[in-house]
Amino acid sequence: MSVPLPRRAVLRGAVLLGATTLTQAGAGGARAAATRVDQPTIANCATWGARPPSSPVSVVQNRPNKIIIHHTAFPNTSDYSLAQAYRNSRDIQNLHMDSNGWLDSGQHFTNSRGGYLTEGRHGSLYGLLHGQSMVQGAHCVGQNSQAIGIENDGIYLDVQPPQALWDSLVWFCAFTCQQYGIAPTEIYGHRDFNSTQCPGLLHDRLPELRRTVAARLG
Ligand SMILES: [Zn+2]
């Protein structure tokens, strides 16, 4: 499978963000174009070897108004590799299509314990990069046409996620808020809307996540 140099891209982003901080400090807090959040590397469906959807994905011609955080409840793997992130994306898609009977992955994006981001449902990345529409998901009843859903690999009922997962979640949320004009206060957990324990301890950290994302947005 082709791998789009994620490490180099991540480093490139980190360098730009570092430069942003310097610019902000040097400009005395003045707003500048340099405050924009750089795009994190997100492997698209073709890159991780997704199956085609079983029927056409619906496009919603509106911007989403929130982000919803999930955990997969899969066992916590100690394999932090890119290969594992891709494998996890395929496992989720197979589960959602073969067991749940859905047309594709239910979530829009997936985050691995090693901090690698992948596209979930086909078309999600196109929507995010253009910032004007979204594909209808299947991740949270009542919110699938207005909320971007991200699955974080693992189960966090009594353990915290790895730092790499947290860092990529922050970056993803900041970029998504920027692209769609979503306020950082509009980041929620699955259990805010449905009867579920998802996303475990990540729900307790939503205030921290909102604050950190707000800081990244400047
Ligand atoms: Zn969930």
UniProtKB/TrEMBL annotation:
Belongs to the N-acetylmuramoyl-L-alanine amidase 2 family. Pfam families: Amidase_2. GO terms for biological process: peptidoglycan catabolic process. This is N-acetylmuramoyl-L-alanine amidase. Gene3D superfamilies: Peptidoglycan recognition protein-like. GO terms for molecular function: N-acetylmuramoyl-L-alanine amidase activity; zinc ion binding. Keywords: Signal. Residues 52-200 form the N-acetylmuramoyl-L-alanine amidase domain. Residues 40-194 form the Peptidoglycan recognition protein family domain. Coiled coil: none annotated. CDD domains: PGRP. Residues 1-25 form the signal peptide. SUPFAM superfamilies: N-acetylmuramoyl-L-alanine amidase-like.
